[in-house]
User: What shape does this take?
Amino acid sequence: MEGSVPYGTPRQCKATRAVTLISTAISTNSWTQERVESPDVVVVNVRAVGVRLRIYNIYNDCKHDKSLEVLDRDLRRSGAWRRGGRGVSEGMIWAGDFNRHHPLWDEERNHHLFTTSNLKAAQKLLDLTAAYNMIMMLPKDMATLEASSTKNRTRVDNVFCSAEIVDRMWTCTTREEERVTRTDHFPVETAIGVRYEQAKIQRHPNFRRTDWEQFRDKLTTKLNTIERPREFRRGEVAAFLKAKEELERVLGETIEEVVPKTKMAPWKKRWWTRELQEKRGEVRRLAVEVKGLRDGEGAELRERYRRRRNDYAQMIRREKKAH
Assistant: This one.
């Protein structure tokens, strides 16, 4: 699902900096998107068993608080939404790149970031979390960004949830080993314990794995049960249509009985190779080792990790170009 755009004239707005993707395994009956007055905020309402969630995906600019102001207005406007039915609890999640520094989440060693202007800039976010009883789920001191030039690690991304659903939050942590090449942010993984309506899985014939000898034998047997092919004359429209339907029927039955089924993966890339799979595994293993190092340690390991990530990025580029 693409990021939301403002009401009115979407062509006049700048490119969105927030996007929310929803798994095809979740039924579309279980969620709805709400439009808001910003291309940098995406709002999704999720209906799960016994709980309703309102999830905000937010990009807040370094120079202003327009996204937070949109968040505040939307929360005031949607106050009526926070009324669950009998046996249904309500909850909110705010997640994204807030671009704010504060001792409540940044490491103490980054005290040079705790300037008066930065602390003042973070106050709007702190006021909102206090007003709506939001709790920070991403542990303090957990970095989410590594500067490309200085390699200093800071905390600009965050995850907050309302007190009503804290018990449903299983985990909230960074996954540095899943970091995408040529990026400076670390992925943040948040797991929520809810049950939702699943979408019906459509399985398709996998003709590549078909036993064609068995297919021909089965089809031949079925063809012998219907009228043999012949040339139809003008005026035999009904007979022609009946023969066509019979032929389609035996073909369909043969495919259903012989051809194995496969579940199409919408995220699968046709240019993906086994070599890329192995290289990604190597990069992830190095990322886990680097994550366990303290500042100033393992210079050689960090350099090897950097080189492997660059090699991995180049391999992806070559495979895409060659595909």
About this structure: The longest strand covers residues 51-59. Residues 274-322 form one domain. Residues 1-11 have pLDDT under 50 and may be disordered. The CA atoms of residues 290 and 302 lie 6 Å apart.
